[in-house]
Amino acid sequence: MLQLLKVFNFALIEQAEIEFDNGFNVLTGETGAGKSMVVDALNVVLGGRSSVEMVRSGCEQFRIDAVFALQSQGPLWQLLQEQAIPSEEDGLLFLSRTVSRQGKNTVLVNGTPAPLSLLRTIGSLLLDMHGQHENQALLRTESYLGLLDGSDGSIPGLLAAYQLVFAAWRQTSEKIAELNRDERERVQRLDMLQWQVDEIEAARLKLSEESELPQQISLLSHAEKISASVGSAWAGLADGDQHAKGVIALLQESRRQLEVAARFDATLATYAEQIAQVAVILEDLAPELRDYLDQVEYDPIKLSRLQERMDLLYRLKQKYGGTVAEVLAYAQAAKAELNELACHDELLRELQTKLARQEKELQEKAQALSRQRQLAAAAMGRSVEAHLQELGMPGGKFVVQLATGAQFSISGCDSIQFAFSANPGEELRPLAKVASGGELSRVALALKTVCSRNDGAQVMVFDEIDAGVGGHTARKVAENIARVAWKKQVLCITHLPQIASMADRHIHIEKKPVGERTQTFVRVLTETERLQELARMIGGDPITPSGMDTASEMVQTATTFRQALQFAGQ
């Protein structure tokens, strides 16, 4: 329920703080006082449309805060958890929305910044707005099935079970359609995949080739240069040339000379030993270079073959992936798709068998849903008709016409029409074609009364639903709204004292000049002030003793009616 609404610099409201009752809250005031501003502010803080024109003149922004007490761990709690919005321990929900003159929106949910779309979703779960615009929904037949389903508490469960099977059935149907979409395309795809797999497999790729081939090509391409360089290095170490000895021979000669000199100076023996060690290392290296030199070959045919192999890898990588590993992975995926396409007929038969099984189950779920809707349609027709009798339409007829077809949809196999007759003897015809504005308003109220028990919204707003009614009918409208308020919190804007007298809390809206500006003030009336406001609504100004007596009598009658509702448990 809505506990508190705070409004700052919104239209003509400079500042207002309104506490609401958990039952029937009525808003009254002179025409043009700004009663709808309160409802507009509530709609805005729940994600409704706003504009910079709503910012009070001379101010840079407006802010609206609302506090709701959540009644159960329902869809709203789940939504908050999914969005990582912290929950308050006392079950309260704090909403705030600020709109600047530059059009910037700031939204807070329990103190956490949130997108406007989330605020709208929260609003749809909390609030059911009912006014002249919402009456127009009764002119759209696509809204009827939702109203019928909302009138019977057992239908949502049946509908959810049906929709679960429907989703699986539709998924299978789409797979079958995809398989059958283009047989020529399937055959072409088969041929192309087979060619690609054959091309990759014919190459007999190895992961090591990617690094080994460039190295081998480099060796063969520079074999002559490598041979000349290594041969020269070997000759320098081992053989020398015609002008000089090799490095090894020179080192050995140097060692012998130092050994001779060491006979006279022992310190030279260390140098001779070091030269001997270097000579041993080079003596081991020289035959290795000789062996390497013997292996170096210049083979143009082999080089050409390796280059062709390298070109093949390049082409395959261009087509199927940047590396040999990716090319091989592509081949595996192509084989899997080939297998699936080759098993087309078998897969199609399996899906068709699955679809037949799902369709049978779907038909059963649809029939169970239709049977309950038929019962709900008859009950809704009777209930709405009974309320219409009370709302000043003693000859009014209302019938819910439900037809069941063979076509499955997300909402079942049923189509619906509301048939209406305002006067005795008139033929029942589609509601949208025959109801006047006042009649439509009363039909809407009757439907809201019937559906309110199962409607998920916690707060219901009636914005001037009393248009076009008065007298005894106004009294019956008040009683119907009171029945709704027994199950839900109700906010109602009205000009009729019969409706205002039925409220648990009376909120008055008044427009006054303050200096050179006009402001709208909102406050909860005391019992005495409430009687005075009712007397004004009955007889206008000045307020007379008889008007006060009538107001007091109306409040007493309303109190007795509400007590009877409580006693009856309605």
Give an overview of the whole structure.
It is a single chain. The chain is α/β, with parallel strands linked by helices and 570 residues long. 57% of the residues lie in helices and 18% in strands. The chain contains 20 helices and 15 strands. It has helices spanning 35-45, 75-82, 116-126, 132-135, 144-150, 155-180, 183-202, 209-221, 223-238, 247-261, 268-295, 300-320, 324-342, 344-390, 431-434, 437-451, 471-487, 497-500, 527-539, 545-568, and strands spanning 2-10, 13-19, 24-28, 61-69, 92-100, 105-109, 112-113, 127-130, 397-409, 412-421, 429-430, 459-463, 489-493, 505-514, 517-524. A 6-stranded antiparallel beta sheet has the order 2-1-4-5-6-7, with helices on one face. Strand 1 and strand 2 (13-19) form a beta hairpin. The longest helix is centred in the middle third of the chain and has 47 residues, at 344-390. The two termini are 19 Å apart.
